[in-house]
What we know:
Strand order of the largest sheet: 1-2-10-7-8-9
Order of helices and strands: HEHEHHEHEHEHEHEHEHHEHHEH
CATH topology of the largest domain: Rossmann fold
Number of domains: 2
Radius of gyration: 18 Å
Number of strands: 10
Structural class: alpha/beta
Shape: globular
Number of helices: 14
Oligomer: single chain
Amino acid sequence: MTAPTIDDIRDASARIAPHVIRTPVFTSRLLDSLAGTRLLLKCETFQRTGSFKARGACNAVFRLGADDAGRGVATHSSGNHAAALAYAAARRGIPAHVVIPTTAPRVKLDAVRAYGAHVVPCEPTLADRERTLRAVVDETGACVVHPYDDPDVIAGAGTAALELLTDHPETGLVITPVGGGGLLSGTAIASRALDPAREVWGAEPETVDDAYRALASGRRQQNATAASIADGLLTELSDRTFSILSCLATGIVRVTDAEIVDAMGLLFTRTKLVVETSAATALAGVLALARTRALPDTVGIVLSGGNADPARLPFDRGAAG
């Protein structure tokens, strides 16, 4: 089981540069006042395919040798990784096979197909997703690109923090959402390598808090439920991401669904950023930390994605505005 290094993240940054956006950093005086410190919002909402996932998918796809790439790539996903892998494969001109549950929203299916991927439907259970993916790989010989338990994917995810901290080395704390842990792992590797004293936090819903319990107990944990508005954070740490975060993460902060919705509304009304619930979890985490302690003078927040359905925004736009 390998973990990427800061050199791997730097290599990934150069490798994916033609295929991704160096996303902007936004600020807000109102959000600064609420947190009691200067906040830097790393807007992966503007990334290709609408999330940071394009970074890891592109790094994994463009690291493949010619023979492996010729067989294509495959994964199972109903979210951002599906679109990201389809996009990366299209950029390289190779086949992509994406196993997607029959319950996935039509808008996500359309996005994956628009990038030219072959969509393989399956039943909405993890067991059937994995069984169907194995069948696809057996038939096609495609290389599996895991959404987060892959060193190349983790290295690609870490490039967002590398950009942020290269431009703003004064940042004393960085926070990202945490589900499977790929983004937080890449962020932690980059952050600690550039400044060993820098704090690295993850934020997760309190109803699916395996990362919090894992770091507290010293061993991986499972979630008893998959109930949270932050649907992108319902996965659990892998052995690889748990190992990385056990060594490099400062801590995990838990937030309620109500706090996530409030943070999403604040970003919408005060910065005009439409973020998905998973991304809003990171801001909710900073605000929760600010209620218990003084934060460093500058805090970086990786807003992981913006693929929210505008017809189903969970906050009261009229009241918030």
